[in-house]
Amino acid sequence: MPEPNTLKTTSAEAMADAVEEFLQDELNRSLQPGTGQQAPRAKRRFPTAAEIAAQIETRHHRLGVGNLFYSGEQHVRKLSPMPEKPALADFFRLRFLDTSNHVLQSANLAQKNGLPEEVVLACLLHDVSQELIHVDHGWWSAHIFEPYVPEKTAFAIRYHQALRFYADEAAGYKYPELYLELFGEDYKPEPYVEAAYQMARKHKWYDLARMVTVNDLYSFEPGVVVELEQFTDLLGRHFKQPPEGLGFDNTPVAHIWRSIIWPDRPL
């Protein structure tokens, strides 16, 4: 499987092949020799929250920085200019380069599962603010899309972040093993996350936000390629594209879209 710092220069096809090979190797290693039966899985040791915190001063960047502003050990790439009046599709094509594959797959899964269009749209948009910032990305994503999407969609986007930290196996959501690695096995969400979860759990739209977590993908699905054009009609029905272009329509969030358009500006 490619090293993490090579993934951005690896084609989608090569990445899918590598992931599939890795998963197959993992399966083969898990089988007991000569039996074809699943071997008992050794208990994996995950770091503690204190061990995660101890790593902060070993890095040259903060993990909350967005993809457009940090590219690992490589030099950042020069970005293509945006159209004069950019539409959402232009951001997917020219700015959401690291998150688009993930959210397209998530929306595709939600659509295949027959979920309401407001939820499919939430899956399509829920993580793209990570191009700008990682920390509290659920709130950021909901904030930048609120002027343009149904209220149900904004709710599902905002609260999917808090719900990720709380299992609901009756709804089909288990706590991701990835989070044990990222946050530590003894991690407890901050009080504001707990409060957001408790509010959302009692809300009439809880199922909408929960379905975003259920149809989220915590790794690339091998061999699945989804194009934005699949959702053209859905966006036409539910996304209010400003004629002036995102970033120039004088909404309270226009400046955030401009930051995504021009991330290389020093001021």
Helix/strand/pairing category? mainly alpha
CATH topology of the domain at 88-261: Hypothetical protein af1432
Number of helices: 12
Q: Would you tell me the overall average pLDDT?
A: 85
Total number of beta strands? 0
Q: Report the sheet with the most strands, covering strand number, pairing sense and barrel closure.
A: none
Give your account of this protein's structure.
By secondary structure, the protein is mostly helical. It has a domain at 88-261: Orthogonal Bundle (Hypothetical protein af1432), CATH 1.10.3210. 44% of the residues lie in helices and 0% in strands. The protein is built from 12 helices and no strands. It has helices at residues 12-30, 49-54, 88-94, 100-112, 117-125, 137-145, 151-163, 177-183, 191-201, 206-214, 232-238, 254-261. Helix 5 packs across helix 7 (151-163). The chain starts with 11 loop residues before the first helix and ends in a 6-residue tail after the last helix.
Summarize the structure.
By secondary structure, this protein is mainly α.
Keywords:
single chain, 267 residues, mainly alpha, Hypothetical protein af1432, 12 helices, globular, disordered N terminus
List the topology elements:
Layout lengths: L11 H19 L18 H6 L33 H7 L5 H13 L4 H9 L11 H9 L5 H13 L13 H7 L7 H11 L4 H9 L17 H7 L15 H8 L6
Helix pairs in contact: 4-5, 5-7, 5-10, 6-7, 7-9, 7-10
